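Risk register update: the risk of archive-format incompatibility is retired. Evidence:
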Amino acid sequence: MHESVLLKEAIDSLNLKEDSLVIDMTLGFAGHSSQILKRIKTGYLFAFDQDEEALSYSQKKLETIGTNFKIFDSNFVHAKEKLQELGIEQVDAILYDLGVSSPQLDEDYRGFSYHQDAPLDMRMDQDNKMTAKQIVNTYSEKELGRIFTQYGESKFSSSIARNIIRHRQKKEIETTLKLVEIIKEAVPMKERLKKHPAKQIFQALRIEVNHELEVLEHSLEDALTLIKPGGRIAVITFHSLEDRIVKQKFKKVCSTDKISQGLPNIPKEYLPDFKLITKKGLRPSEEEQEKNHRSRSATLRVIEKIK
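Archived output:
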């Protein structure tokens, strides 16, 4: 089963009280949510996910702890409007764990893994019409190159895109391992020995299928308005693209504007509304990285609303 990364650090960073109202933006298999629920005996947990299997599993798991929770079958980008429908304007803590859960990676039929053969799917939300198969077989060479560069940060985006076009002209590309084969062909052998050449391309396809970066940016903006003074937002990221978005957003809202920076006494209204709790991103311990290899790329960033 899925092991939540930075579990204790993330929960501790939220500064929870018994009566806290909390949003878990990425419920998954309730690793973080179950620990949150144990700490908020008289509070309430709102959790979001769009993966049917995760929703079903987590509902049962959380029911063994308490009844003071509500799970939404929805992308977290809709969190603000869903809470407003319930008359909730602000909460005490918000958590994001942006990693793809281990069961999603391990289940071969989901198409997230480049180690197992499966249909090219990669949808977090099974109702989503867009799949990785569609992207691989319909995007132009230029569009494929763009997403492999932008979302995969691959040095071999152009040659991989070119090779995909060449192969799909003969036959539609339908499975993960067929795509892996095509990617490998386009990457020099010495580079293949350094790291798996499909990792960055599969990341790029997953981000494109699920619009992950746009969703994150939009949701973070909403989170800043949802959090009460004294409340905290914690985000666990797993690759540099996500982390850059979070880092820049947090830095911006925690900084004094340039005009007031030179003043000896900055008026209160010009001080930032938030402060950084983690000056640098917090990384998993060596012990956790050893135990759970998927935690190695994780970074936790936390801010607190101060006014």
